[in-house]
Structures are given as structure tokens and as C-alpha cells.
Amino acid sequence: MEEMERGAGRRDVWTRDGENFSIVSVGVSEEMGGRERRMVFVTVGTTCFDALVKAVDSEEVKEALLQKGYTDLLIQMGRGTYMPSRVFGNSTLQVDYFTFSPSIAEYIREASLVISHAGSGSIFETLRLGKPLIVVVNEGLMDNHQTELAEELADRKHLFCARPQTLQETVSAMDLDTLLPYVPGDAKQVATLINKFLGFPVD
Questions:
Q1: What is the residue-wise DSSP string for 67-135?
Q2: Is 15 in contact with 22 (CB distance < 8 Å)?
Q3: Which residues contact 50 (CB under 8 A, 6 or more apart)?
Q4: Looking at residue 126, what is its pLDDT?
Q5: Which long-range contacts (CB under 8 A, 24 or more apart) does 103-106 make?
Q6: pLDDT per 10-residue tile (average), the chain, 203 residues
Q7: Which residue of 75, 100, 102, 169 has the smallest Cβ count within 10 Å?
Q8: For 114, phi and psi rounded to 5 degrees?
Q9: Quick check: pTM over 0.70?
Q10: Closest CA to 113 of 57, 72, 59, 166
């Protein structure tokens, strides 16, 4: 799909070129049947987290996202072997996927909701960009300080925390209005989290 000049009734969408995506502007009515586009971006980073990919590819989670008004699901699947089902058409959730990208920041910027593994880089990048975030904990990791980070930030109302098996329930129950902005410049908050993980006293 070639890039077109944006005007009235047009909006940016992702288009595939091999394993890469780029943003182009297309007519809303011709691409989406007049629906407002709301994209969910899923990222597992450089890891293998098939349990998360399988969860978001399940009919239950996709239906929950659709019920919340989302129109597109873009999955960055990393090193996983499970291949999600691509879905195209105006009447249902659009689903596509890719493996890796040099940077996921642009995908996060375009997203209305991010579902991420518990890697600190992905978490803080999403919070820095002010996007609603569901962090899905990988319970298969043995040394899982990431779980503590995700749960602490969830307790502080900066994000939602789930497991693969509870993702559908989390999506259905989430209220984005309850989330509080994360202030990147708050070094004391980050230091407190790090001290807790290392077992140091917290003032």
C-alpha cells in the first residue's frame, strides 16, 4: 500500500512489507467500515513467551478486546514458535503479527492499549509514553524479579497486572480511568522499587 496525503476522513494505519510495518494514511470508511481505529499492541521483547501470544490469540481474549471497542491487534511475538492467526475484515478484530523490530516505540505511540511481558524496558517505555498497559507475568521464569516490579506498579495504579490464564478476565474488568500517570522524573520511586527487589531497607 502506498502512502497517501492525509486529509479529511483519513487516518494512519500499519501496512506490512515483509516482516516490517510502516504507517500510512488511508480512508477510514474504505479500510474499517467507518469504525474508529483503536489498536492493541502486544510485545514479548526479545524473549519467547508463547503463553502470552496464545492467550491474546484466544477467541475469549479477542472477543473481550472487541467488546472494549478495540479494532486491531498487532502482536510482536519475539522468539516464540506459536504462530497467531491473521484476521482481516471489517466485521471483527483485525489481527497481525511480526517477530522483531529495531524499536517498538512507534508501535507503542500508535497503540490505544499495550499488553506487554514484564521486562522493565517495555514497561517503562510504555509508561513514559502515557499508554494504558497490561503487564502479563511470565511464571515460567525462575528468577522473576519482573513479577515484583509489575505487581508493585500495579499496586500504585500505574498499570494492570495479569497472568496468561487471567488475561481475558483482566481485559473485561479493566477501567482505564483508574490508572494514574507515571512520572519518569521521580527517581525516588524507582530507587524504592530497586531497593525492595535487592532486599535493602526502604525509608
A1: HTT--EEEEE-TT--PPPPPB-STTS-EEEEES--S--HHHHHH-SEEEE-S-HHHHHHHHHTT--EEE
A2: yes
A3: 80, 81, 82
A4: 96
A5: 104/41, 104/43, 104/76, 105/129, 106/23
A6: 35 47 40 74 95 97 96 96 88 92 94 95 94 94 77 95 98 98 70 60 50
A7: 102
A8: -115, 135
A9: yes
A10: 72
Residue recorded with cell 469504525: 35
Q: What is the side-by-side strand order in the sheet with 72-76? A: 94-98, 72-76, 39-43, 113-116, 133-136, 160-162
| Cβ proximity of 14 and 96 under 8 Å | yes
Q: Which three cell numbers stand for residue 94?
A: 483485525
CA dist 106 and 185 (Å) reads 22
Q: Which residue has the cell 522473576?
A: 144
* Residue whose grid cell is 514484564: 118
Burial bucket for residue 172 (CB in 10 Å: 0-12, 13-18, 19+): middle
Phi first, then psi, for residue 29 (nearest 5°) are -65, -40
